Amino acid sequence: MQVLGKRALNRALLARQFLSRRVNATAWETVRHLTGMQAQAPFPPYFGLWSRLHGFTPGELARLLLDRQVVRIVLMRGTVHLVTADDALMLRPLIQPLLDRDLRTNTTYAPPLRNVDLRKVATEARAILAEAPRTPAELGKLLAAHVPGCPPAALAHAARNLLPLVQIPPRAVWGHSGRPTYVTAEDWLGRPLAEPAPEQLVLRYLAAFGPATVQDIQAWSGLTRLGEVVARLRPRLAVFANEEGRELFDLPDAPRPGPETPAPPRFIAEFDNLLLSHADRSRVMTDQTRKRIFASPNGMFPGTLLVNGFVRGTWRITRARGRAVLDIEPFAKISKKDLSALESAGKRLLGFAAPDHEHNLRLAPRG
């Protein structure tokens, strides 16, 4: 069995993620290929697409949201993802076991929901949202009239888990602000949910993140017992091993560049699934780097820098009084060649993020 080392897995991941080089694809095609983009905050997907696509402009994704071709919905790992309309209808039933489990185990919301009739919550929430879109606070308050004694926030959380709720525009439309506001996916898209197809979930994951172990697929999705699904697919898959001897599964014809393939520096968006979709994240960052990244306060996940394919620092843009500042914080020494490439890309990033501002790029001492 062929063994794939960390650099080989890194280069395969970069190729699947359109990060080895920018590609000529539409935003819709890219969102679909990636099986969604992590969207806990409204705007990181715009930066994720900018890093991957030639000629991407914010208006392209904004139009997709307004035209209901993509939606924001709770999916993998119980987090908000930006996905195509078709994928929202296909993926949401598959993720339901994860969301059911959360209602039993969530330390904040499970206790007040313990004796609540969840079927009644789902029925009432669907009726309320059929009348008009609602913010979580509004939905929780209206549900509390039907389920007295339960905190409105817990009822809104239950509705979010029980029903396929999408967050509608102007939330996440570039240049606009808006509170999270829910309607059901069926009402927003005018179509029913699809029949669950776990094999499709695994195949789509491998296309965007493979080669991968069963544990990797489960870490990305938040689901369990996917080994049974992989076993059914095994005759259709290529099988490798990692350096620890664990089996890696992949699509036979998916790109697997050699480990010496060049990997240009890249700015990676906040919350990007590149860094969140494997149980073993050593293919893109060291354990020390992982601890440093995930130590960010309040669950925030910073923008990161890839140098030679691996995380080597963080970045952020701040705006004040007509000036946009890009702060780059490397974790280790960066070569002059890579630093020059980062500075050049950073100027383009500022032009994308804040075209009407004056620009400044600051490089912190490596730490």
Topology:
Layout: H1 6-16, H2 27-33, E1 37-38, H3 44-52, H4 58-66, E2 70-74, E3 80-84, H5 85-105, H6 110-113, H7 118-131, H8 136-144, H9 152-162, E4 165-167, E5 182-184, H10 185-189, H11 198-209, H12 214-221, H13 227-233, E6 238-241, E7 247-250, E8 266-268, H14 287-293, E9 303-307, E10 310-320, E11 323-330, H15 336-353, E12 358-363
Parallel strand pairs: 11-12
Antiparallel strand pairs: 1-3, 2-3, 2-4, 4-5, 6-7, 8-9, 9-10, 10-11
Helix pairs in contact: 7-9, 8-9
Strand order of the largest sheet: 1-3-2-4-5
Please give the radius of gyration in angstroms.
21 Å
**What's the overall average pLDDT, rounded?**
96
Proportion of residues in extended strands: 15-25%
Structure, described:
The protein has 367 residues and is of the alpha+beta class. The protein folds into two domains: 18-189, no CATH class; 266-363, no CATH class. The protein has 15 helices and twelve strands. The protein has helices at residues 6-16, 27-33, 44-52, 58-66, 85-105, 110-113, 118-131, 136-144, 152-162, 185-189, 198-209, 214-221, 227-233, 287-293, 336-353; strands at 37-38, 70-74, 80-84, 165-167, 182-184, 238-241, 247-250, 266-268, 303-307, 310-320, 323-330, 358-363. The strands form three sheets. It has a five-stranded antiparallel β-sheet with strand order 1-3-2-4-5. A five-stranded mixed β-sheet has the order 8-9-10-11-12. A hairpin with a 2-residue loop joins strand 10 (310-320) and strand 11 (323-330). Helix 8 crosses helix 9 (152-162). The longest helix has 21 residues, at 85-105. The relative contact order is 0.13. The model has no long low-confidence stretch (mean pLDDT 96).
